[in-house]
Amino acid sequence: MLDKRIMCLDLGGSRTGVAVSDIMGMTAQGAGVIRVKGFEEDLKEYRKIIEEKNVGKLIIGYPLNLDGTEGEKAASVRAQYEKIKDALDGIEVILWDERLSTKEAERAFAETGKNWKKKREVIDEMAAQIILQSYLDSNIF
After folding, report:
1. Residue 63 and residue 74: Cα distance in Å, rounded?
2. DSSP 8-state assignment for residue 118
3. Beta strands in the chain (DSSP E)
4. C-alpha angle 60/2/10, rounded to 5°?
């Protein structure tokens, strides 16, 4: 059992998917989508969830290229990660390889047969959940 939950952010240009672990550290559940408004506004949202869900560690999806190199998107996420890490005292912040998480979320969404109107938001949340589950399955925490 964990002392605190683990939260994951799948940072995006217009939306950020959010997922949070159970207290046992075994499963990841989707926790919504945050509309990107700017760093300070977004940080307030992250802090609110951290407090509400009793989070002690934050995982940020790191979109490396398939060959493991850092492309433009990964560099942007790394820059955001540095800012978030510096702003969140007392919370460990980790970059976690998220290669193909969005593709996996899109496949899973297609299998549900749900309305495609809300597809992007659902996929962003599912991607965060997939990234966090990958971290939890690694057993390195």
Report:
1. 5
2. G
3. 5-10, 15-21, 28-35, 55-62, 92-97
4. 15
pLDDT digits (tens, 9 = 90+) for 23-45: 999 999 999 999 999 999 999 99
For the chain, domains (ranges, CATH) are 5-138 (3.30.420.140)
Residue labelled with tokens 């597809």 = 119
CA-nearest of 100, 89, 34 to 62 is 100
Place of tokens 């950020």: 16
Classify 114 as helix, strand or coil.
coil
Q: Each residue of 79-112: pLDDT tens digit? A: 999 999 999 988 999 999 987 556 565 665 565 5
15-21/28-35 β-pairing: antiparallel
Cβ atoms of 16 and 10 within 8 Å: the answer is yes
In this structure, how many other beta carbons lie within 10 angstroms of the beta carbon of residue 123? 24
Task: Report yes or no: 90 and 125 within 8 Å, Cβ to Cβ.
Answer: no
